[in-house]
Amino acid sequence: MKSVILSLVSFFLVISTKAQSVSTDNHRNFPLMISIEFHSLSLPFKNKKLFSNIGIGIGTEVSHSGNRDWVQQFKISWYGNKRVGGGLLVHSQAVWRPGLFSDAFGEVKLGVGYLFAKRPVDSFKPTSDGWTNVGKKGKGMFVIPTGIGFGYDTFDESLYVSPYANYQFILAMNYNTSVTVVPFTLLELGSRIHFED
C-alpha cells in the first residue's frame, strides 16, 4: 500500500512541475493543488464540527477547452478519523468554473473515484469456532464525489496562486452488507499554484 501511495504522489508531483500552457484567459494546465481537508461521516451540511478529522490532499488539473471554465481535476487525499477510521481517496472530477465577479469564481464538481477506508478498531468475523479477529484491515470502495466551491484567481507572469474552498459530498458504495451506500463529506481549503512557463 505504501508503494502505491508513493507512486501516486510522485506522479502528481511530476506532472505538476511540467511546462504549462497559457490560454487566452491565462489558464495554465497542471498546477500543483495542495489542500487541507476535514472529513465527516454525515449528510451534507449536517456536521456540527466542520474543522475536525484533518487530512491533506494533492492534485492537479487540465483544461478541457483551453480555458479555465471547464477543467478535469485529478487528486489524491488522505484523512484521519478516530471514530470511523482514516482513508485514502483517489478521484477525478469534471469541474465547471463560472466567473462570479472580478477575479472570483464558483465551482461545481462531479466525478468518480476509489476510497480505501481503514477500520478504527479491530474487527471480528463469525467462524465455526466462534469469533475471529481480522484486525484493522480496511476495504476499497467505489465513490461518487460531487462538490461546490469558490475561489480567487489572478494572473502573474511568473508564479501565481489561486486559493479556493470546496465542500464535497461523497457517496461510498458497497460499505457493508447491511448499509450498502454511505455518505460522507470533505471540507477542502487549499490553493492551486501555477508555475512560470
Q: Please write the string of helix (H) and strand (E) elements.
A: HEEEEEEEEEEE
Strand order of the largest sheet: 1-2-3-4-6-9-10-11
Distance between the termini: 35 Å
Radius of gyration: 19 Å
Taken as a percent bin, the fraction of beta residues is over 45%
Q: Please tell me the overall pLDDT.
A: 79
> What structural category arises from helix and sheet content?
mainly beta
How many helix segments?
A: 1
- Give the helix proportion (percent range): under 10%
Major sheet size, sense and barrel closure? 8 strands, antiparallel, barrel
Which shape, going by the Cα principal axes? elongated
Q: Any low-confidence stretches, pLDDT <50, length ≥5?
A: 11-24
Q: Count the beta strands.
A: 11
Structure description:
By secondary structure, the chain is mostly beta strands. It is 8% helix and 55% strand. The chain has one helix and eleven strands. The chain has one helix at 2-16; strands at 32-40, 54-63, 70-79, 87-96, 99-101, 104-117, 123-127, 130-135, 139-152, 160-173, 181-194. It has an eight-stranded antiparallel β-barrel with strand order 1-2-3-4-6-9-10-11. A two-stranded antiparallel sheet has the order 7-8. The chain is elongated, with a radius of gyration of 19 Å. 30% of the residues are buried.
Write the layout of secondary structure elements.
Layout lengths: L1 H15 L15 E9 L13 E10 L6 E10 L7 E10 L2 E3 L2 E14 L5 E5 L2 E6 L3 E14 L7 E14 L7 E14 L3
Antiparallel strand pairs: 1-2, 1-11, 2-3, 3-4, 4-6, 5-6, 6-9, 7-8, 9-10, 10-11
